[in-house]
Structure formats: structure tokens, C-alpha cells
Amino acid sequence: MIQIKNAKELEGMRRANALSAAALKFGGEQIEAGMTTWELDKLICDFILKHGGKPNFKGLYGFPGAACISLNDTVIHGIPSHSEVIRPGDIISIDTGAKVDGFNGDNACTYACGKIDLEARRLLDVTKEALHLGIAQAVAGNRIGDIGHAVQTYCEAAGFSVVRDFVGHGTGKELHEDPEVPNYGTPGRGPRLVPGMTIAIEPMTCQYDYKIKTLADGWTVKTRDGGLAAHFEHSVAILKDRTEVMTRGWEDPDFTL
Ligand code: MG
């Protein structure tokens, strides 16, 4: 069931998502060649705790980290690891969130470690732009399919593909609520967007084919063909007259809590 948030609940969502955005931005700034993904996760975890939040990914469905950290051909759900070292030229997707006063934030961004090749840069730029085109469709009166259609059309026109097996979602007191928000779809189809809905829009894109595989650890999702993958996510609130990007802070160089 889709939960419609009242004004007070939207305030709670804003606080949780502001901290989530600050934690993501902080994480991106900490990336350095030679560090392990475990070290990066620890920094993000400590940041969330220090600012009065709870890392809401930790323990959810048994996930061990405060952030999913996914390198190169890993699409999502990379487990922070002592043995995985970030190297120059890697792309690093960080997906993290904070729980504050019972409400959940959620956001993601793919960062670069040093200089990356042109095709990797283009994948990141296209995926981020697709996220914003999706957000532009996330307005009261539109339908969920309008979002996915905008994301899919743009990514495919650029020669990339969008993942089918994982999708965005409603957010609220639960990190994952209804409705599902696919990154593909047909305009005018799916649930109607109404004021008070809060949803996470999160294009997951692949350099080549969108088929994925989950590793034996039960979490790590990689592209099947070994191509690169990117993941950008904002949590937004549908309001009567506009759409509020509650996690906009990670994109804002001047943003602080
Ligand atoms: Mg999400």
C-alpha cells in the first residue's frame, strides 16, 4: 500500500534525507586510491552516527555495511570489504541512507577515483542526467511509468541499458515501501503520483547489456558481460505544486548540514 505522508511526516523525511545526502557527499569526498571499501564504509557509518542518525542499511535484510559500495562492473549491493582496494580509474557507486526519528533517507551516486576513461565518464554523466529527467516526470498527476520511460529512453538513446531486475521504491518509515519505481516503462501506466508520496528514483545503468548476476555472497550484483555499471539516486517528495528533491545536498558543493 502506498503511504501518503502528512506535513509532519514530510518534515521527518526531510531531516532523514538531508543527513543521508550529507553522508553520501562526505563519502564521495573521502575516496582515495589505496583505501579499502571497508575503510570507506566505516567513515560513512561514523559520519551518520556522529550526526545523530542510524545507518539504516546496516542489518537490513542482513546487509553488513552502512553503505553499499560497488566498484566498476558491480551494479549495486557491493559489500564493504577489507580486501577490496580502490584504485585510480575505478568508478565507485556509494548507496547509503540514514534513519532519523523513525524516517528513512536513501540516495546514491557513482564517483570516480582520479582520471577515468571517456566511456566511463559518459556513463556517469548520462545516468545522472537520466535521474534528473526521471525526477522531472515525478510530478503530481503523472504516473510511475512516466518516470521509467524518461530514464529508459534517454539511457538507451545514449547507447547504454537500464537494469530490469532492481527498481526504485517508495520510502518512509520503512526504507522500501510501495510503489516500485522501475527505470523502464510506458508513459501513462502504473500508479498515479499524488501529493504526499515520497519515492526513491534510482537509475541503475550498464555500459552494455542489462543482464546481471548475483554472486555467491548473496548480495553483490554484477553485470553479466563485465561491462561497467552506474547508479544515481535521489529521494523526492511529490508536493501539490512542485517536486522536492530531499537529497539534493549530495549534488550541491556548498551543502552542509
Ligand atoms: Mg533506494
TrEMBL record:
Origin superkingdom: Bacteria
Co-factor(s): Co(2+); Zn(2+); Mn(2+); Fe(2+)
Binding site for a divalent metal cation 1: D95, D106, E233
Residue ranges of domain Peptidase M24 in the record: 11-238
GO CC terms in record: cytosol
Chain residues that bind a divalent metal cation 2: D106, H169, E202, E233
Signal peptide span: none
InterPro entries reported for this sequence: Creatinase/aminopeptidase-like, Pept_M24, Pept_M24_MAP, Pept_M24A_MAP1
Cofactor note: Binds 2 divalent metal cations per subunit. Has a high-affinity and a low affinity metal-binding site. The true nature of the physiological cofactor is under debate. The enzyme is active with cobalt, zinc, manganese or divalent iron ions. Most likely, methionine aminopeptidases function as mononuclear Fe(2+)-metalloproteases under physiological conditions, and the catalytically relevant metal-binding site has been assigned to the histidine-containing high-affinity site.
Its EC number(s): 3.4.11.18
Enzymatic class: hydrolase
Binding-site positions, substrate: H77, H176
Molecular functions (GO terms): initiator methionyl aminopeptidase activity; metal ion binding; metalloaminopeptidase activity
Keywords assigned: Aminopeptidase, Hydrolase, Metal-binding, Protease
Gene Ontology BP annotations: proteolysis
Reactions catalysed according to its record: Release of N-terminal amino acids, preferentially methionine, from peptides and arylamides
PANTHER family: METHIONINE AMINOPEPTIDASE
Record's subunit section: Monomer.
Function statement: Removes the N-terminal methionine from nascent proteins. The N-terminal methionine is often cleaved when the second residue in the primary sequence is small and uncharged (Met-Ala-, Cys, Gly, Pro, Ser, Thr, or Val). Requires deformylation of the N(alpha)-formylated initiator methionine before it can be hydrolyzed.
Family: Belongs to the peptidase M24A family. Methionine aminopeptidase type 1 subfamily.
Protein name: Methionine aminopeptidase
Organism of derivation: Candidatus Faecalibacterium intestinavium
